[in-house]
Amino acid sequence: MMFNDPMVRFPEYPFLLPGLKFIRNNGFTIYGSPGGVFKINGSAAGDLLQKLYPLLSSQKNTLEQLVAKSGLEGVRVLRVLEILFAKGCLINYVDYEALNRLEKYFVKNMSKNKNYNSIEDLRLLTANKRVCVRAAGESPLAEEIRGRLAAIGIPLVEREEAGSGDLVVYLTENDWEEEIEEIAKSRDVLLFSHSRQHLQIGPMLGRKAARKEGYLSAKSAHPLAGAREAGYDKAFGRIIFLHTLKEYFKFGERLLLKNYIEVDARLSESNVVPIRGVHYLGEDSLIGEYEDRVGFPATKYLNKTSHLAHYKASNAKLTIGDGRSFLWKKTDSAKLDPKLTELANYLVGYKKKDGPMPKKMCPTGGNINSNLLYLINRNPDYLEGEGLYFYSNLDGSFYMINRLDRDGLQEAFGGEIGSGGSGLLLVPASDVDMIGSKYNDFSFKVANLNLGVLLSQFVSAARVQDIGYNVVTRFDERKLLELFGVKTTKELINYVIEVV
Asked: Any idea which architecture 129-275 has in CATH?
């Protein structure tokens, strides 16, 4: 359960996020949560939540106190609290109680964007972070931004004193200033370009953000319509201030790392312009399109409470996904070689299969049960004889898929496979479709990563057990998959291990 998971920091004193709205209707529909509207179904759940609501919204209570005061069954209370916590609706009362007005405003953003576990966490990570507001020439707008930041306690610094962890906010009436390139070598630079009729928000420039070449290429491809008139609209100060706070505290989707936003003075129209790296240009544009499509959605998974994503029902099922077919014949356990079974379990088996989050011997992206282990047996005295097999990590058994097709095997490998050694070929595969149900287009990279880790796992086992082996990388992947009956789904094979 989430409550006992060491990677989840469950609130010691569960307290409802302020501003939530609960509508009763055969359960409760909850509005205002960071993840959007959701519903807790069932009249029983509705009755339970109705009893818990006053305790969660106005008092400091531990889980044990909530159970005692509500008179409800502990398991049911915890289940509802886990749902609320996973939706970002629960915070720690002691964190909220000590907050000032500005910090209470930040609580919702923290919950929504999941970059911090608590205000204390936020304070710690921003303790030494400062902001340098710099402008190309005299700028009343820069003075306004400095005043707004100072008023809420954000520490300011001049450019000469700015360190590598500080944020530089740069204001200009042009598309580019030469000194920006020098500043961005060691600091993050948040660029704002403005005229009287127009404001450009971003991009963020730096070593881990957009680069000069990509930004200027995007600017040349998306020129502004109409002439630029010097100055700025009075509304721009508030917009720049809010975006500066967003980047300073790392709230939001960090859109400006790879894009900039164009806004007109009436604030009625905006346009997000993507910034492409050099590999997006010219003859290599296809590579760029692929990289953009499979780019890892970091803001969705790489944050302080990302571990909660694994508890989503559809994701949790993937940890025990079953690759077996009912058409395959289960091998008699008496015919199994204990050493082979031990090796197979070490490669794709589980350390611990009980509980909501089964742990695997060899880690996989997202803890998905996507690593598959096929076996080509050319030894007639082994297992059920010559044939193609599949190892199931759910029951620790081998299943015969089919008898050995020697002609098909030769065609897949482009010739005869050596007959020396044990006669066994281990064929690790990765189920791209299964990974894709969680990571979408990023699944191909996850699948390749999984197979690389699995090969490392095998090498460590081979050294311990003194197993001789050859790694074969030249074969027809599609024909090899077809031998195992894989024709419509997407599985990946990067190598075959010949046990000698």
From this structure: 3-Layer(aba) Sandwich (3.40)
